[in-house]
Design brief:
The complex is a heterodimer of chains A (664) and B (306). Chain A is globular, with a radius of gyration of 24 Å. The longest helix of chain A is centred in the middle third of the chain and has 24 residues. Chain A is an alpha+beta fold and 664 residues long. An 8-stranded antiparallel beta sheet of chain A has the order 1-13-14-15-10-17-8-21. Chain A has an 8-stranded mixed beta sheet with strand order 4-3-5-2-6-7-22-23, with helices on both faces. Chain A has a 5-stranded antiparallel beta sheet with strand order 12-11-16-9-18, with no helix packed on it. Chain B has a single domain, classed as Up-down Bundle (Vanadium-containing Chloroperoxidase, domain 1). Helix content of chain B is 50%, strand content 9%. In chain B, the strands form 2 sheets. Chain B has a 4-stranded mixed beta sheet, with helices on one face. A two-stranded antiparallel ribbon of chain B has the order 4-6. By secondary structure, chain B is of the alpha+beta class. Classes of the chains: A alpha+beta (664), B alpha+beta (306).
Chain lengths: 664, 306
């Protein structure tokens, strides 16, 4: 195929470069109506995507550093416009999607909102990045959508949600979940901070809510390509607002602790605390915090990719080549991405020249033999098979060298177009098993980590994203008795690893956002018997890399084997639905942290991580389950990949939910 | 032979002990079955309501006085609304069950908000059934005059989840009926001193579900909401001889849903109530039924029990 080509400029992310790929006539494959095409230049602080690709990129959207990270958008609200909140002792932030702020659980007894600040990040055009709402703005909207402005009357929920940017039927990429039975944001905010204000007026008064409604998937890419940029923006803004509230409410005394749930993350990446964009941003944010400042903590779930066959670890012998099968689903309308990272630790600088990558289509029509591509370069791997206007259909990128590392990581991104493109200008690829060739050109064994990127349809209920996976004959879905396997299993009196150290694995499926060392990270387990949730992504375990070995702790994400999920608010006010996933562990973890801080003023300097760790250890010491877990017991070590420091006790009030009672 | 065997000899004289009294007022209908009452009253209402117009314009009048005029929007308006048909289609999985039920039954939806038990509120149910039937007869004439293609006629990718009806998309019959029922129930619940905004919310949801199903545009529902409310107001006026009003939708000078907009509760609330234009004739039998229904909605007691 073609010779390697250099990126147009340093600091341009391969995902972005791929997104703006050109057709064979040199035109962008992205139309002006494409939301992301409108948003991204704005996000990068430039007016034109050509400038974006050819000259500069905002530093915090690149790999050149996040030190100068700042909001790239002109948000209108300032410290002066936020109303003082003198009654607030604790701040709970929820960064999520489809949050219904009109629910009674998020309002005071008089019907006014408990939300101090809300940012609807929808990006309908290039000139705006959603809208911000103060508590007064929210109250005005609540009144405008209540009969005669009476906040105690039934709210026109669709009207209110539309007005606040959380529901949009007229936009293909708009939010829909609040028109359905359940929404992620409703469940999260209720589990983390919902209450019946008549029964818990103190909680309602003392826990100030800050909410951010993330854009629709269309705005952060089906593969989550641009998710981290939005996440960073959201965290920064919540951080600013918390700082402002501290000044407003307590005259600079700054004694309000804050915890925020951030239930997002993409799958593919280096997954190292010093490499991925969000990891470095969080580390820098933490470094910038003074020792005396109260906590500004985040809780991030591990993710739910445990069984998706999207992660592999391989050891390539010196001067040899390994092939990996990558299955692309038929009728897939979205791009597919795979990242390959060579593990540099223990290898020294020579690793930088060790890994070469090749790619072949399922029928062998196109095949690129393993090539050592220079950092910051790419090659086209296959041309369009659909007869459309596209020039190429797949590409291999070599990431630029992340700065300031002792050993340079060697990372590749393999980007494939869709099988069934939505337009002629986007190149099509054949479905089936693609072959990835990985060559070790060094004289030492080379450890490589593969991860398939998140892949979700931009359409709210679309099913055409066809997530790809790694085909591996050694991967076992079930054990010999027909029980679904997890990364570890309880085999009394010990927890044992179920997977070999190489091949496609569950170990390491923890998402990129959770793979840093700064925040609390939580996983899920079954409340009835303490067994880890089979879908909950696993940490790396004890493979010796700097990647996270496991979560901070695990919380209940399924009540029992029969009653899957846990109950919290549905889309409509008053409804309750069961939802499952590690996100909801993050919501519960935030609740625990908030409750702890509320209960004791002296605890308000304790971090979320420490609170969760202590709660888990304390619970495990009571021997709550037959499947015991003692983090100090050598034979229990494998379970750390799923349970971290242990299982946080199930809130006894929660068990009553399944009996129909509404307990705050 | 059988007759003789049963009664014996009968010369044709009358048994003086039997009084064949069917009531002495024309408004007394209790001697009839609910189905017969329905036929009688529907026939009477259809003698008062009249639809006329030209292709693209329909006028609804009561006692020869206009109560509602609607004009069919131009084709680009419907095309512009297709984005909502696409957007709402994402709710199909979630709304499937209620959409299937609402094909034939929308009254039960309102029974989820107010008590509509067939024994405890039998006259209310009878009144609502009558109003809904009236709507059906009127809407078919209005649809014929304002006939417009359905969403599936514009694009095969709509793929409605139910069979597309043969009649016009504009205005929506479900919206007319739902808002007419909501209008009557609003009056009854207000009579009881317990008004609720949920009735209009429910009417809107029933209407929106037709967009979800892929057989209507939001603007069909907007026109239907205006019509339904006017029909309800007219029936209420006919029951007490109060003032009626004239509303217009889509006409020059009438209200209109912006082609790029969705039908919302806020839009409905923002409408200025049409000005009273004339007095309705009081229909005794309709008034009697309305009174019977109102008796099923006694004003709520205030204060605690002693």
């Amino acid at each position: 195929m073609a010779d390697p080509v250099a990126f147009p400029a340093r600091g341009v992310m391969p995902y972005l470069h791929w997104y703006y790929r050109l057709d064979k006539d040199g035109r962008s494959t992205r139309s002006g109506a494409d939301t992301l095409a409108k948003l991204l230049p704005r996000a990068f602080g430039v007016d034109d995507k050509d400038i974006l690709l050819s000259t500069k990129a905002d530093p915090h959207f690149s790999y050149s550093g996040t030190q100068s990270a700042a909001l790239a958008f002109d948000l209108e609200l300032t410290q002066q416009t936020l109303a003082p909140a003198p009654n607030v002792d604790v701040v709970l932030g929820v960064i999520d999607t489809d949050i219904p702020l009109g629910h009674r659980a998020f309002r005071h007894a008089d019907g006014t909102s408990r939300v101090l600040y809300h940012w609807s990040m929808n990006a309908p055009d290039a000139s705006s990045y959603g809208r911000e709402f103060t508590q007064k703005d929210i109250n005005d909207l609540l009144a405008a959508h209540s009969p005669d402005g009476d906040l105690m009357q039934p709210l026109d929920q669709d009207g209110f949600n539309t007005a606040i940017g959380a529901l949009d039927y007229g936009n293909l990429a708009g939010h829909r979940a609040l028109g359905m039975r359940h929404s992620h944001g409703a469940h999260m905010l209720d589990a983390a901070g919902g209450c019946d204000p008549a029964k818990a007026p103190d909680f309602a008064k003392k826990v100030g809510l800050i909410t951010v409604n993330m854009p629709s998937r269309w705005d952060f890419g089906e593969g989550g390509e641009f998710l981290e940029q939005h996440m960073i923006q959201a965290i920064l803004r919540v951080h600013q607002i918390v700082e402002d509230l501290r000044k407003q409410a307590h005259a600079g005394a700054a004694d309000i602790p804050a915890v925020t749930s951030l239930a997002f993350g993409r799958q593919a990446g280096a997954k190292r605390p010093d490499t991925d964009l969000l990891s470095r941003f969080l580390a820098e944010l933490e470094l910038g915090r003074s020792a005396s400042a109260p906590p500004f903590d985040l809780v991030i779930p591990t993710g739910n990719d445990n069984q998706a066959q999207v992660v592999a670890r391989h050891v390539i012998a010196p001067q040899s080549t390994l092939t990996v099968d990558w299955r692309i689903r038929p009728a897939d309308q979205t791009d597919n991405y795979l990242e390959v990272w060579a593990d540099p630790d223990g290898g020294g600088p020579a690793q930088d020249r060790a890994l070469a990558v090749g790619l072949a289509t399922p029928d062998g029509t196109f095949a690129v033999s393993p090539q050592m591509i220079e950092p910051g370069h790419y090659i086209d791997a296959s041309t369009d098979t659909s007869g459309g206007a596209a020039k190429f259909a797949s590409r291999i990128y070599r990431f630029e060298k992340p700065p300031q590392r002792k050993f340079q990581l060697s990372g590749y991104l393999i980007a494939l177009g869709p099988v069934a493109p939505r337009g002629d200008s986007i190149g099509a690829v054949p479905s089936g098993v693609w072959t990835l060739s990985l060559s070790n050109r060094s004289d030492k064994p080379l450890v490589v980590h593969l991860s398939v990127q998140t892949d979700q349809s931009v359409h709210p209920v679309g099913q055409l994203s066809g997530r790809s996976s790694l085909d591996d004959p050694t991967y076992r879905t079930f054990d010999d008795t027909g029980v679904r396997l997890d990364a570890v299993k309880w085999d009394a009196p010990c927890w044992v690893n179920t997977e070999p150290r190489t091949g496609t694995r569950r170990h390491g499926t923890m998402n990129v956002a959770a793979s840093q060392s700064v925040t609390a990270v939580v996983s899920g387990y079954r409340g009835s018997d303490g067994i880890p949730a089979p879908y909950a992504s696993s940490g790396m375990g004890d493979d010796g890399t700097p990647a996270r070995a496991g979560p901070t702790a695990a919380l209940v994400t399924d009540d029992t084997g029969v009653l899957g999920g846990t109950l919290a608010a549905g889309s409509a006010d008053g409804s309750r639905v069961a939802m499952r996933g590690t996100s909801f562990a993050a919501a519960q973890a935030c609740r625990l942290v908030v409750d702890t801080w509320l209960a004791s003023k002296s605890s308000r300097t304790t971090s979320a991580k420490d609170i969760l760790q202590k709660a888990a250890q304390s619970h495990e010491s009571t021997g709550p389950f037959d499947a015991a877990f003692d983090p100090d017991d050598p034979c229990h070590q494998p379970a750390k990949a799923k349970l971290g420091h242990g299982r946080v006790p199930h809130d006894p009030r929660k068990s009553q939910h399944r009996k129909g009672d509404r307990i705050i | 032979m059988a007759h003789d065997a049963s009664v014996g000899y009968w010369a044709g004289d009358v048994d003086a002990s039997v009084d064949p009294d069917l009531g002495h007022s024309l408004n007394e209908l209790d001697y009839l079955s609910p189905a017969r009452r329905h036929q009688l009253l529907l026939g009477e209402l259809l003698g008062v309501f009249k639809v006329e117009g030209t292709l693209g314009l329909a006028r609804l009048s009561v006692d020869a006085k206009k109560i509602c005029t609607i004009a069919r929007p131009d084709t680009p308006v419907f095309r512009d609304q297709m984005k909502y048909v696409r957007g709402y289609a994402d709710l199909r999985t979630d709304r499937h069950a209620e959409i299937m039920i609402q094909q034939d039954d929308i009254l039960s939806d309102f029974g989820a908000i107010v008590h509509l038990n067939a024994s405890r509120r039998k006259y209310t149910v009878e009144l609502l059934g009558l109003v809904q039937a009236l709507c059906v007869y009127l809407e078919m004439q209005i649809k014929h005059l304002c006939r417009a293609p359905r969403p599936v006629d514009y694009d095969a990718r709509v793929q409605p989840m139910i069979q597309t009806p043969d009649h016009s998309t504009y205005p929506s019959g479900h919206a007319i009926e739902a808002f007419a029922i909501a209008g009557i129930l609003n009056a009854l619940s207000a009579h009881a001193g317990a008004p609720t905004a949920l009735l209009d919310h429910r009417a809107l949801r029933i209407s929106a579900n037709r967009v979800v199903a892929g057989v209507h545009f939001p603007i069909d529902n907007a026109a239907g909401a205006i019509l339904g409310r006017q029909i309800a107001r007219a029936v209420l006026a006919l029951s007490d001889g109060s003032a009626m009003s004239d509303a217009q939708f889509g006409t020059k000078g009438g209200v209109m849903l912006d082609g790029g907009a969705d039908l919302t509760v806020a839009w409905l609330r923002g409408l200025t109530p049409p000005t009273a234009t004339h007095t309705a004739p009081k229909l005794g039998r309709i008034a009697a039924l309305m009174d019977q229904a109102k008796r099923e909605w006694p004003p709520q007691q205030t204060g605690g029990a002693d």
